[in-house]
Amino acid sequence: MAGPIVVLIICLLLPFLNCQDDQKVTLADFGDEQFSQGERHYLIYDINHGEGFNLRRDVYMRIANTVRQLREKGHNYVLVLPPWAICTTGFEDFLQVNGDKIDLVLYLQAYPEGWSEDEGYTLKYDKKPCIDAYHYYAMVEDAVWKGFFFTYEKVYASELECLSIQGQSSTLADAIIKDFPKPMSLFVDRAETILHDRFGDVFYWKARRSMRYAKKLVEIGNRFRLEHFNSTDQTDRTPLADDWEMDKLNHNQATGGNYIQIVEQMNIKEVEVLEQQLDHLQPTHVHRFLAEEMSDAAVSIVDQWVCAHARHFVGTHLSTFSFRIHEDREILGSPLRLRSIACVLMRRSKLRKRREILPVNSQPNGPLFMSSDQKYLLMMLLHTPVHFYTTLIDWSNTY
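-> structure tokens emitted (399 positions)
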């Protein structure tokens, strides 16, 4: 029976996403009256250890929709979240119920031969010999496979199998139903191998909206907005309900803060030169969020939060950092027209005049974009009070 998408609070890379004390929903509880009456299966997952924040968020969405489809087809699966940093509730809850044993590690891998232009990209999966799984897992005794397992030394798996897969969330769901229905606990490793079913559909957005940034970092970002831009959720019309399912934001509702977010791939020296040039165009103001006591990763999350609330945003083409900000802005209710304009801008080698790319009612707001050509930027700037918020680097190379 069809039902709602998996609704989870993610604890992702402390302290980047929120772990609410009153909503520790990590072992998803759907209610047996809505789904299968069969035995409960647990699906745990992990990705390549070196991957960053935004990919981890994206893979959560893919796996959440895998579990949704398993349940819609009558299979009683529960999604167990990885214990990123201090937010260990999900995996520890699983261990309390099931002990230290995981029935099966299913290691996802690409087909070594890839796919040909003649064949095209087809959805498929096959049990195959492991390509590199043995670099990360070792059988220390019969039916005892040891691996990373989130640094839990006592945890082990009874079996290890490798699945070459070329597909998406539904492809993985089909493979589990057909070839791996028996394990009560299934650990899917390298989950980033699968893709989204339908990018941007209702289930994509439900999973996306279920994620919230860590309250601590949101508060830091909000203080920065208020101090430098006099920007608040009330004045900018960007409030979010505590329960994401209660948000009823409409596009064009948000006005955004009185500042322009710019993401440029520049080194520190280039940024300093740009600031010096902008100083000659007072009263234009340039701001950056700097916090030596915070990690670069935490600073990048504050950057994303501040970016999402800007009145206008111009990012970098093909940057995942920029793309996630556009998603946040859409969730907050930013106008879709300006969002699409920014996407067009990022595909151009040079930015055009404002009258060519912005609605007439946006013209009085001053300079709304940046070009990597500094001379072009200076030529286009107006002598009006405008706040720019810049990041030191394009975080797409890291996150």
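Confidence is low (pLDDT under 50) at residues 1-33, 337-388, 390-399.
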